[in-house]
Amino acid sequence: MSSNVSHSIKHRKVPNDVFITPRELAMNHINMIDYTKDDVWYDPCRYNINGSYYSQFPKECNKTWSEITEGFNFLESDMGIESYPPTIICCNPPWSIMDKWIEKCIEFNPRVISFLIGQLNLTPKRIEILNNAGYGLSKWKMLKVKEWYGISMCVVFEKGKENIIEIDRKVYYTLDKVKKEKTKPNESVSKYKEGDIIKSSNDSKDYKIKLFSYNKKNKDGDIKEYYRKKWVLLENC
Prior knowledge:
The protein has helices at about 5-10, 25-30, 100-110, 125-130, and strands at about 40-45, 60-65, 90, 110-120, 135-145, 150-160, 180, 195-200, 205-215, 225-235. By secondary structure, it is α/β, with parallel strands linked by helices. The longest helix has 11 residues, at about 100-110. The model is unreliable at about 1-15 and about 180-185 (pLDDT under 50).
């Protein structure tokens, strides 16, 4: 995919969350989940009665659903939950609201939470949220759908299981002696000059200021140098 297409997807104002899952892929995803006939499967975004997931859930099990286009928003509705409390939630969720989706899934307290998501949607933070709720990442499968952006993944989180991968929430920098620090709300970058020495609010060490600047035409058409207002680069002295 070209960088222009990637950029347009990243910065679009209205996300496109309607992607119909190929039936074969949905079936492969469903087959990743261990179940018994007593399980209740829940598809929170089934699309319609012939939806790729809902229509292929195991026939010997009960199943329930939500679908926002039919007036049942998963984030607001409990359709079928009282009759059939779900033990397995399995779906291709809207990727633009994954945090809210995960929180809602956890509220239902199923035994299994399983998603088909983009590779970039499986973040350490989201894994940690599920871990803290008692769910471990027990299975994952990487795959490619021709018309979709990037690599996709089927992930299975099970209650009481350990993660099959290790996560690290620390943020690393490419240069050990260089880091970014956000200026305080009452500070202005314009008060600093290149080479000024200040103390970092993070570790009280002395750092030398290097300002981020860029050239831009002013209203008179002259090229002038401007400084970014939110970030300074701090180098160890």
